[in-house]
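Lab notebook: predicted structure, single chain.

Context: the supervisor wants predicted structures on file for every construct in the current expression panel, including those that have not yet been purified. This is the next one on the list. No modifications to the sequence; it matches the entry in the shared construct table.
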Amino acid sequence: MTKNILLFVSALSLSCMSLAASAMAQVDMKSRPVLVITNEKMPATQPMDTTARPARAPVITADQVVGASYYEPTETVVGRKVDELRTDLFALQGRVSGLSDKLRDIQNRSQGQSAEYNASIATINTQLQSGTTPGNPRLVQRLSIAEQNLDALSENVADLNTIAVEIANTASVSSFLLENARAAYGLSGAIEEDHARLAQLEDQINGVVVNIDRLLNNVNDDITRSASFLSSERSNLRTVSLAVTNGDMYGKSLANKTFSASQSMGDMASAPVSDSGMYQPASYAPAAVSGIPGGRRQLAKIRFDNPDVNFEQPVYLAVNEALEKFPSASFDIVAVHPTGGNAAQNTIESTRARRNAERVMRSLTQMGLGLERINLSYAPGADAATNEVHIFIK
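Prediction complete. Output recorded below exactly as produced.
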């Protein structure tokens, strides 16, 4: 029964709440009706924006294009490459400058040594021309100084060759640097300033290349001149040494006649040295010597009828004149000995004649005539009264 009472009370409560809610809804509809009909003007309402507005680009001024705002410092890969190449260029320029200074020092040193050498030779030749004694100690001392100067000049040529190799290596480095600079134009990620710097760098490298080429040409010219000077002056020095030893005046070395004007061997007539040792005109026809083959022209005949035969001066004059006309000529030195004695005497005279021929050959080589242009032989001479040395040109 109690349970029924509770259910009744709950249903009564719900019913009361429903009646209250219904009463409130009616009151609300009276205060705010759902549909209102009136003659008044409707209030304005905000329409919805469903269209796109026109885009407005920002204004770009000339200062923004070419001014400081555009050319702000920018680090790029190409810029770093340019910095590396510039560092290598500075090192290359320093190397070229050092090589140029070394070359200038060698040139100055060579100039002083050449002047001292020429002064010594001029002193010797002046005294020989004026007349002096054989083996004059003063001239021997000058001759020693001249030899030392030639040795120093030879060392300078070795230094020039070393510098030439270094300059050639430097030229290779400059070519490699120039190729790298030109290849940098094709790198991506560069700015305008990078290419401008590359152009300046390329011009500077080209200038260094020109300097290297000029430096290499100067070195090669110095080497050529110095080598030619040493070759000729060493031959001249041997001739001067022989002149100082004998106290007589000779000319330049016979080896330096190679580049004289040449003419046909058929134009040359016989031109021997007379018995007194003086050069004779070309119309002289020498007598034939037994055992000597034909096809040669006799140039000189030296009679060794005393221990001290002064043959150097006339032989030098004869050979020198022959080489001026026929630069490519060669010479036969024939030792001629008499045959009037017994076998023992003939053997002794043959040995003496050979020694005299070797003496003449040594004198010619000291005068500068190459050994490859001299042939030694011997032959008996039926008409010879004493040992003789005949010189033939062919």
